[in-house]
């Protein structure tokens, strides 16, 4: 099984009938996760070589083609690029949301950021900064995707997406072609249980004053990584009460294996925030949160909505890991409705 999982793919651009770069050359390499994630039927594990020479893991699932009658009436769906948060990797999208959106006609790419999942690690104490992570995503989009995609980010991945979309304005203002390619244009962005533009410090202080026990638990769970050894704490932090313990244990193991190094230096990160404002009022942003989110509270969700001047959607009966929680379909359906309105 391990040998099969380690048959990976490196980039070679080939124009497909949907205009998306495909990857063909095959390479065998050792898995970085001790318990590698096995891709589902219809999914491929690809690797994109970054300018640094490091390889970024990409889990890809092609959107189902419409029949001939639908082709005459429908417009081209934008590709979807998914960005995970701390303690996760591309696998968290591959479980449910990649199959769901591909079945609805969207080509789906889930990325593992540096030092996470099967992606290479830099020679540093942390994986990167908002700028370096966003630049890696931009490099992938620029070189591998032919149509402006929709960028979707979860938790701290949502903060990376916010940095990305804030810097697309520099590309619009740029006069030379090199500058324009730094942050390729998008068709829109979805922020999923996202850390707000000011970072997580506001969340922490609110918890300290209003929910001191919850503040202690979330600090112990995330900062001290106690979620890795305590199944009840992992469940309370990321999942709904109705989530089966067997599934929680599986995801607990994947989260532990995925996060070989921190995504950020949080002190330096908070010093760089808030992210710049989006200057293009026509840019489409969708903000969805979870009512039972133990990490990002309602005020954090509303802060993000106010920052972008758009209403927020808060899903009942689902927790922070909205894409792998037992009611994952609720969040996916809300995003699909928004995506269909983009056409």
TrEMBL record:
<dbReference type="GO" id="GO:0052689">
    <property type="term" value="F:carboxylic ester hydrolase activity"/>
</dbReference>
<dbReference type="InterPro" id="IPR029058">
    <property type="entry name" value="AB_hydrolase_fold"/>
</dbReference>
<dbReference type="Pfam" id="PF12697">
    <property type="entry name" value="Abhydrolase_6"/>
</dbReference>
<dbReference type="GO" id="GO:0006654">
    <property type="term" value="P:phosphatidic acid biosynthetic process"/>
</dbReference>
<feature type="domain" description="AB hydrolase-1">
    <location>
        <begin position="80"/>
        <end position="324"/>
    </location>
</feature>
<dbReference type="InterPro" id="IPR000073">
    <property type="entry name" value="AB_hydrolase_1"/>
</dbReference>
<dbReference type="GO" id="GO:0042171">
    <property type="term" value="F:lysophosphatidic acid acyltransferase activity"/>
</dbReference>
<protein>
    <recommendedName>
        <fullName>AB hydrolase-1 domain-containing protein</fullName>
    </recommendedName>
</protein>
<dbReference type="GO" id="GO:0055088">
    <property type="term" value="P:lipid homeostasis"/>
</dbReference>
């Amino acid at each position: 099984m391990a040998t099969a999982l380690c048959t990976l793919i490196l980039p070679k651009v080939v124009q497909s009938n949907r205009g998306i770069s495909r990857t063909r050359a095959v390479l065998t390499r050792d898995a970085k996760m001790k318990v590698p994630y096995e891709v589902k039927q219809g999914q491929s594990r690809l690797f994109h070589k970054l300018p640094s020479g490091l390889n970024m893991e990409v889990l890809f699932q092609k959107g189902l083609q419409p029949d001939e009658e639908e082709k005459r009436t429908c417009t081209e769906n934008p590709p979807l690029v998914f960005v995970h948060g701390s303690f996760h990797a591309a696998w968290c999208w591959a479980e449910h949301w990649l199959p769901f959106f591909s079945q609805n006609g969207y080509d789906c790419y889930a990325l593992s950021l540096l030092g996470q999942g099967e992606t290479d690690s830099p020679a540093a104490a942390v994986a990167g900064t908002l700028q370096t992570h966003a630049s890696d995503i931009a490099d992938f989009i620029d070189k591998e995707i032919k149509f402006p995609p929709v960028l979707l980010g979860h938790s701290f991945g949502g903060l990376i997406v916010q940095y990305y979309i804030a810097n697309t304005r520099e590309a619009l203002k740029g006069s030379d072609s090199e500058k324009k390619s730094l942050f390729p244009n998008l068709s829109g962005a979805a922020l999923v249980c996202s850390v707000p533009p000011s970072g997580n410090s506001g969340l922490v202080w609110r918890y300290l004053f209003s929910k001191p026990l919850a503040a202690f638990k979330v600090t112990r769970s995330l900062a001290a990584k106690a979620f890795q050894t305590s199944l009840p704490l992992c469940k309370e932090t990321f999942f709904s009460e109705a989530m089966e313990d067997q599934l929680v244990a599986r995801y607990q193991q994947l989260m532990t294996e995925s996060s070989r190094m921190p995504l950020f230096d949080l002190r330096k990160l908070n010093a760089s925030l808030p992210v710049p404002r989006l200057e293009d009022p026509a840019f489409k942003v969708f903000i969805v949160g979870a009512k039972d989110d133990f990490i990002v509270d309602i005020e954090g969700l509303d802060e993000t909505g106010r920052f972008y001047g758009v209403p927020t959607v808060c899903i009942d009966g689902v927790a922070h890991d909205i894409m792998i929680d037992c009611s994952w379909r609720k969040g996916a359906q809300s995003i699909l409705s928004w995506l269909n309105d983009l056409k």
